[in-house]
Amino acid sequence: MAAAAEPASPPAARDVDVYATAFGTLPVYRWRQAPKGLATRRQLRERRLRPGGQEPVAVIECRGGKRMAWLYEIERALPVRPMTFAKEVALDKAMAKRQTCPSCSRRYYHCLPLKSLGSCLECYDGTPAAPGSYLHPPGDQRAAAA
After folding, report:
1. Per DSSP, what are the bridge partners of residue 49?
2. Which residues, other chains included, contact 59 with Cβ-Cβ below 8 Å and sequence gap of 6+?
3. Do the beta carbons of residue 30 and residue 61 sit within 8 Å?
4. Cα(85)–Cα(29) distance, integer angstroms
5. More confident call, 18 vs 122
6. How many CB atoms lie within 10 A of CB 17?
7. How many angstroms separate the CA atoms of 132 and 127, rounded?
8. Are 101 and 65 in contact (CB under 8 A)?
9. CA distance to 25, 37, 92, per residue, from 47 (Å)
10. pLDDT given at position 15
11. H-helix or E-strand containing 21?
């Protein structure tokens, strides 16, 4: 008969903070109660700043606890990186994909519901589009006013 295997070592004990929130040990502030010097990502962006790799230092509760936002130190934030021509071209290509109807090739000034409808409203159900809401597709030769 084979020797009985030795029992596995007991699982390592974990230190658990019974007072920790869902966000760990970060302080949680209510709406408009955060101290000066802290800002959300959007507030940093308004100041032309970015978190710059720093970890959030607190959490702010919005809408009665239904929404949360990370707070960052303004002093440690870095300026946003400048937009380069290559980035601008890449963003324009990405937006063109979301704004161009695959059926009629019109590029609209807003994003189209391509996942749900698959095309613009005019191609989907015949709802006419306002002439000022899109660019004419390439190759669309419209006669100039005579």
Report:
1. 79
2. 21, 23, 26, 27, 28, 29, 68, 69, 70, 71
3. yes
4. 40
5. 122
6. 8
7. 15
8. no
9. 28, 13, 24
10. 58
11. none
Amino acid at 145: A
**pLDDT attached to residue 46:** 96
Is the CB of residue 50 less than 8 Å from the CB of residue 44? yes
Lookup: tokens for 100? 């161009």
**Tokens 């959490």 identify what position?**
59
Which pLDDT value is given to residue 136? 75
CA–CA gap between residue 55 and residue 78 (Å, rounded): 13
pLDDT digits (tens, 9 = 90+) for 48-84: 999 999 999 999 988 877 888 999 999 999 999 999 9
Q: Please, is 39 exposed, middle or buried when counting C-beta atoms within 10 Å of its C-beta (0-12, 13-18, 19+)?
A: buried
- Residue from 103, 22, 115, 112 nearest 70 by CA: 22
- pLDDT reported for residue 146: 44
Token representation of residue 119? 């095309």
